[in-house]
Amino acid sequence: MAAPLQPEVKAMRRTREEAAATRLAIMEKGLELFSEQGVAATRLSDIAKSAGFTRGAIYWHFRNKWDLFDAICEHYSQPFKQLSDASLSDQEQDPLGKLRELLVSILQKIEVDLSFRRMMLMFIRESSGIGEREVSDPVARFMDYQHQRRLSVIRNGIRRGQLPVNVDPEAASWLIKAMVDGFVSSWLQRASYFSISSNADVFVDTVIASLSALQPVPDSVDDEVCVL
Which of 84, 91, 154, 217 has the fewest CB atoms within 10 Å, i.e. is most exposed? Predict the structure, then answer.
């Protein structure tokens, strides 16, 4: 039988658990407000007040709201890390199969998990850059991180013969993002019109099939014969 824990050990464990619970509660409330009104329009004091914490408690865990943004993205993306890493591995025999499984899992989770849905809404909102509002540096860094990972998957697919050798990885990466973001945005606007999870398989198969149709962009119009 294991020896009983000393009081000071119990107190330290309880303190760590309470700190972890506080950090998670801050992320949940931050995610809620970020998804509703955007990161730029949300102050840490707004999150503190809404979550029932002091500003000091917020700053104990996060340097600023963009530090909180990064933590939210990392936390809510964690369930997909194993699949994502597998699609990037040089040893993976079926990188596009892992990519397909990853995208289907993401679309299915959006419909049943409110927090994950909010994260996707938050990121689509912040990465749109529509109008005069520029994409912030933290969001741009996260977008580039995701882009580099997609590039690795595409290049793995080309090496494994799953995609034609003349597929443009850059174009393929942005095509995936554009199609997935568009599908998710359409569902978020009209969630009662269709089930995103029920259509996930068909949609992702369409995305994967579209990759093979991508051709390199010609250097100039002289490279093509235009028929009018």
Answer: 91
Is residue 141 within 8 A of residue 69, CB to CB? The reply is no
CA angle 124, 42, 131 (to 5 degrees): 45
Mean pLDDT of 152-169: 94
Worst-scoring range by mean pLDDT, 7-21, 184-198, 206-220? 7-21
Name the DSSP letter for residue 224.
S
For residue 150, give the 3-state DSSP assignment: helix
Cβ-based burial of 123 (10 A; exposed 0-12, middle 13-18, buried ≥19): buried
Q: How far is CA 138 from the centre of its chain?
A: 13
Q: How is residue 53 written in tokens?
A: 């914490």
pLDDT-derived band at 224 (thresholds 50, 70, 90) equals very low
Give pLDDT, residue 128.
Answer: 75
Please tell me the predicted confidence (pLDDT) of residue 48: 92
Rounded CA separation 20/26 (Å): 10
In the chain, % helix, strand, coil (3-state, to 5) comes to 70, 0, 30
**CB 106 within 8 Å of CB 81:** no
- Cβ–Cβ under 8 Å, residues 203 and 194: no
